[in-house]
Amino acid sequence: MNPDPIVTELDSPSNEPVQNSDHQEPELDPLLVWAPSGRRLISGLLGLNVVLLGAALVAGEAFNPTGLKHHEPQVFMLLLLGVSLVWLLWYLLWARRQPDICPHKDHHAGGITVTVVLMLFAAFSLLLYVFRIGYLISMRDCKPAAKVVAPFIEAPFLALQTYLLWAHSKDCIHRHKIITRSGLMLILSADLLLWLNAVTEDTIHTEIELEKEDRLDFSNTKSSGADVTDLTGVANSTFCQCSASAACLTFRKAIEVLYPFNMEYYLMAGCMIYVMWKNVGRRMSPDHHHVTQKLTLHVVYEGGIIFGLVLGGLVLVAGVTVFIFYQVWVGQKQLRLTAFLIFYGYHLGVMPVMSLCCLAGMLVHRLERRANEGGHNPTRSLDVLLLVAAALGQLALSYFSLVAALAVGTEGPLGSLDLSYSLLSLLELILQNIFIIEGLHRHPSLLAKKKEKQRSSIFKPRKKVTASIQEERKTDISLLEGNTPAAVQEHDGKKPWTKQALKEICAFLILSNIMLWVIPAFGVHPQFENGLGKQFFGFSAWFVLVNLGQPLSVFYRMHSVGALMELLITA
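^ that's the sequence the OP posted. Answer follows.
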């Protein structure tokens, strides 16, 4: 009996309908009569145009807030959120109940680690909307009506999207595919634009805090007159936000504290929506079995992880101490230098240890010689893509700092520390990416076959060679389906110390990445406040670079924690 294909695209022009299936679709779809032949062409073009238009409006508001007199960005976002809410209600209340709309599940999508983190971010984001509503109502005389109404639309959108991802992130939808893909793409576009808007608003808050702490007089800087006018206009607009009201100040402080969780939520939710969009029309084999990995405390207790937890706990305690002292001292003139020294000293001590752990992990991967897990897996491909793309933020800042150091020089201790910090960041990010990506592509239980077996098959009769080829094909299928025949199970010979070493390394890297996520997520930006880049590139250019690179760096740390957690479970 021929095995069924692992994954096929039902609406691909080259694929024929699968026979002997209880969920076979009709040959002609009324919507496909006028639709283009591309599987995702309509929804892809729709999302591209929506994102570009929204990004242009958000950028226009950030660079020239007085130019858009009718609050076009807020109105556009409200319309986009309204249409997304209509689609969410349509899918959850009507389409989801249709028979045979979701005959297959992608068990790789919506893992328990990602779902728990998403729920945590969603809870903090909803709390943020509560404070934002109170803040905007108290300042409704200074704010446009569209901005005051926005939280009342964003909160239901976030709640419904969270429920969709919690309950249906594994769905492979096979009905109303064009409408489904278009709706998912609109939600993805809304997530990206809300994140971009959050980045620009966080930029304004950071600029105001720097102005208050350093007591900068923008009129005496070397910036051009247009830059001075823009900065003064931004500052004047923010001073209108809060009066002497204690409630307003409380609301604004809560917004500043909870803002990072909201930014990370939109990125994570957008990634999960993208996987759902890729899975529309995807067919899984009926024989596809998935061995679920439960993330519980017994992974730590029964695994005997000691050194990784102890060292990681020390990194956490030291990081919290550094974070508190930095936030207290950086606003004081006499202690400002000390705040920068403890920040750079902490990172220069932690990142080399993380780099050595990644090197040790790669060496263990070589010693174990596990088989690679192949097959079409949108979730795994997206994990790798996000790791590489999100690392570009910190990599770009490091390389720009290197260029500034070569041009300006490293006079003084802070210049040398900043240059060392940039170099170590480059090394640590590259090594950690290699370690994680190699681990994600390894099969959790099967070892790679030795080369001697492949060479010996050359001198055997053709019948045996044919049998071996068929056996290899069955092995490849079993790697994708999770089945492990007795002829291929070689993991019993695996050395137990390699498994323990990987668990210790992953535990330490998880705690270290958590701390390296917390520090920049809550407003610690020494590369902007006192860096070589500001001196060489100028205030405005370096300000834009840092505030575009830092959110990506924060997202990279958070995404690394999820990937390392998966490696810890499957070690």
